[in-house]
Write a structure and sequence with these properties.
It is an enzyme of class 6 (ligase). The protein has 15 helices and 23 strands. Helix 1 runs parallel beside helix 4 and helix 5 (114-127) packs across helix 9. By secondary structure, it is α/β, with parallel strands linked by helices. It has helices at 11-22, 38-44, 76-84, 91-100, 114-127, 197-209, 224-231, 279-293, 299-306, 335-349, 363-366, 374-377, 395-399, 412-422, 440-450; strands spanning 2-6, 26-31, 48-51, 64-67, 88-90, 104-109, 133-135, 147-148, 154-158, 163-165, 168-171, 180-183, 216-220, 237-241, 251-256, 259-264, 267-273, 317-322, 325-330, 354-358, 383-387, 406-409, 428-432.
Amino acid sequence: MHIHILGICGTFMGGVAALAREAGHTVTGCDANVYPPMSDQLRALGIELIEGFDPAQVSLKPDLFVIGNVVSRGNPLMEAILDAGLPYTSGPQWLAEHVLQGRHVLAVAGTHGKTTTTSMLAWVLEHAGLKPGFLVGGVPQNFGISARLGEGSPFVIEADEYDTAFFDKRSKFVHYRPRTAVLNNLEFDHADIFADLAAIETQFHHLVRTVPASGRVVVNAREEALQRVLSRGCWSEVSRFGSRKEESGSLRARGEPDAFDVLRGSMKVARVEWHLLGEHNQLNALATLAAAEHVGVSPEAAAAALGEFQNVRRRLELRGEANGVKVYDDFAHHPTAIHTTVNGLRRKVGTDRILTAFEPRSNTMKLGTMKAQLPWALEEADLSFCHGANLGWDAAEALAPMGDAARVCPDIDSLVAAVVKAARPGDHVLCMSNGGFGGVHDKLLAALAARS
């Protein structure tokens, strides 16, 4: 089969392309910005990439066009496909029909931690010899790739609640029909497509409805929104994790996030010792253990695998050090994710100064829906520098409660200059964005190195 993918350079669609190529299909694709690293990964797989959405691409005559959710009506190539009556489908639908059918799908859903937990789970199953397939919205460093078919029955997938395509407004994850579903957490996000939290809870309810009676729903016991989801109906075994008190059958942690016992009720079943930081990763680990157990991996074996887990790129990743200042990169963009990321670094560095550089880049943040939460999100940082360009709201006003601890910069160069001026040896500079952030990490390291 020849498939032509519209929007191929996104992390999800790029993963679909890699899986299709590995399965022996002919794969071509296009995007508005054919850019690395995904463009480099795809070309290395022999996938032809085309810049833009020229309607002339219909002359490629693929068997099927696979449409990413970045494509909307009015896109010239999409309009040509519709006018000609050519066959098309969405990425999640193609994946469900050509890759996931007949597999034991383990789907990881939640507002935060999807990429990390999916990577953990794939690594635990790999360590156990199950040779899983996986599709992750990032690059797990244990594997060095974001997607593969695998040889065993399990397939681990990051289950995004974002919409499927312009012609299918259901969340992506309803297509995956998991046998094991992880519900990590649930907050309001994606304000561009969801009116409120209740609308997202409905999509999670739809996901729960697809899990068979012999399946397992792994649920964060601390999340009220997830309890509301289950109260609407659940037909599968429920395995809870993260309770702060002893509960029969539930997994919980005792100890610090980098070294803790895993308890089921009052009984210790495993111990995790690793280099990851933050209580959020402790919860991600508990979710991973509960899900892995459903495919026969004991908590003890899963914990041993986590001891060798190398995390995902762009998760508190140390990019370098110059003149005694360490510069980190992280994907955090939602206020809760920012808060937990800063807290994780704070736990590591103690009283050392933390300087954050961040940009409100996601659609939700650009709309200003959560601007009032930013002072809370950044409360454990000593200084914060916001890239305030292209916002429909006043960043300085939103950050005013932080006083002199927050500064707004109109562009990347002025932000770099401000951070470099403020930084001193022993500081930790944490850059947070769900995009490339204008190459701010390398610019900071170069400017710090050049400072006399």
